[in-house]
Amino acid sequence: MPSRPPIRPSRLRNIAACTAAALLCLLPSATATAAPARPADTAGWETLDTYVRDRMAATDTPGLAYAVVGPDGPIHRRVLGSDGDGRPVTASTPFLWGSVSKPITATAVLTLVEDGRLALDEPVTEHLPGFRFGGPEHAGKVTVRHLLGHTSGIPESAIPLVTDCFRTDCPAAADRVGALDGIDPLGPPGTVHAYSSANYVVLTAVAEAVTGQPLADLLREAVFSPAGMDGAFADRASARDRGLPPGHQLLWGVHSAVADGVDDHGAGYGYTGGGLDDLAAFASFQLRATDGVLSSGAVRLMREEATLRPGGAGTGYGLGWQVGGLDAPLDGAVWHAGVTPGYSAALFLLPERDLALVLEQNLYGFLENDAMMAVAFGAARIVAGGDAPADAPSALLHHASVWGVTGLALALTLAAGRSLVLLRRPARPTGPGRRAVVTASWGLLGALPCAALAVLAATDRLGFLRIWVPDLHIALWTAAVAGAVTATLRLALAIRAARGRTGGTAA
Questions:
Q1: List of residues 6+ apart from 501 with CB closer than 8 A
Q2: Which long-range CB contacts under 8 A does 384-392 form with residues at least 24 apart?
Q3: Chain centroid offset of residue 112 CA
Q4: What pLDDT digit, counting tens, does each position of 105-122 carry?
Q5: Can you give the pTM of this predicted structure?
Q6: 3-state secondary structure string, 289-355?
Q7: How many angstroms separate the Cα of 93 from the Cα of each of 30, 90, 362?
Q8: For residue range 263-316, what is the model confidence (pLDDT) as tens digits?
């Protein structure tokens, strides 16, 4: 999933919010344990520690770990709270990193480029003949560079079609790209920037076609091993071996350790992970310009903002890295944030200070995105020499959406029960006009959640809602079933009254 600063609302989040809004129109503190660090290293970070603790309490995050990192490793680190199994978080407790996987993947892909096994401006179809996104002409112009920089024309709306598969029989990346065949491109390759994890699913398929091995193996060989990321994982089996605990999602405002899914073929776009020390090791590796794994030119290219043609407008993205796009003092940062169901993470490189910040959390709520990710951006500001942010985003969207639809579901359930009771009683006389208004009103209210489900299903968003906003998904289904029952029973009442058995019914 994409992450923005403080993560701009995505089209998918808007769909969930708008669904709830349409329906509504009708109607803590954590336990801290300091990770080992030299006493001299921890001096001067009180503001950072206080800010992180305050944000953790504000969002009721169960577990969090962060570190300020230099080229030689962590300078200051803290681990807070507990994991999804109730154990205290340590520096080795595994987390999922979400889209922080993208710079890891991009680093591995650039090793293939530098080895001469792949070329940045080589058409994807050279390695994936079955890639037909946008038709043969468009697909034939999409290059590895376009995928790395999200300028292939693949829209954000394609993400649910090819990501977040948690079944045991999930298709490999090469078998997922066919789902993009019927998607209309946003524009010719290189002319439009649209952040979409689908680009990195295709990139995974390319890398696997070139190497003849799973991407997870390439990541271990090209990145994890040389960076010293000894506890990092990139597939379901290694995540299980590392003891990845479930992450937390919000269920009606309460964090619940229910998110235990790992996309076995999703390392390229979002399903790598590991402990705080592993993510810190990658940050140090990047501050050391990858220790020669990549040439200085390749490292520089990854961190340069790409431009679109024609006109040369900047994209805010390099090759696997977000570049700038933040207010001072983070305007020179090279960074990436990421989320999966139940987890979130962020990594900020501050080249002018030769420092980095890494942060992991075991809580994520899609409709509380900005509130939950604010801790990472605020902490990065402090490390970069800025002040702690005074304000934080609100979680009102989550509460209004979930509780509003839940309230509608409850109202329709009660209405269905009352309608059933009325149907079993003798009807009271009422005028046909009033009867028609009552029946139509209940029919419209009952049909609304059904219509919302139909729209989500038609646009392939229903599965997304189930994975990312499970409480809203449950509430919407409950409202739809109760609404359908209510509408049906009210119609039965109206038909009975029209037949003149005992007169009309009003409620």
A1: 427
A2: 384/329, 384/330, 384/333, 384/348, 384/350, 384/353, 385/329, 385/353, 386/328, 386/329, 386/330, 388/47, 388/50, 388/51, 389/51, 392/55, 392/58
A3: 28
A4: 999 999 999 999 999 999
A5: 0.88
A6: HHHHCCCHHHHHHHCCCCECCCCCCECCECCCCEECCCCCCCCCCEEEEEEECCEEEEEEEECCCCE
A7: 16, 5, 10
A8: 999 999 999 999 999 999 999 999 999 999 999 999 999 999 999 999 899 999
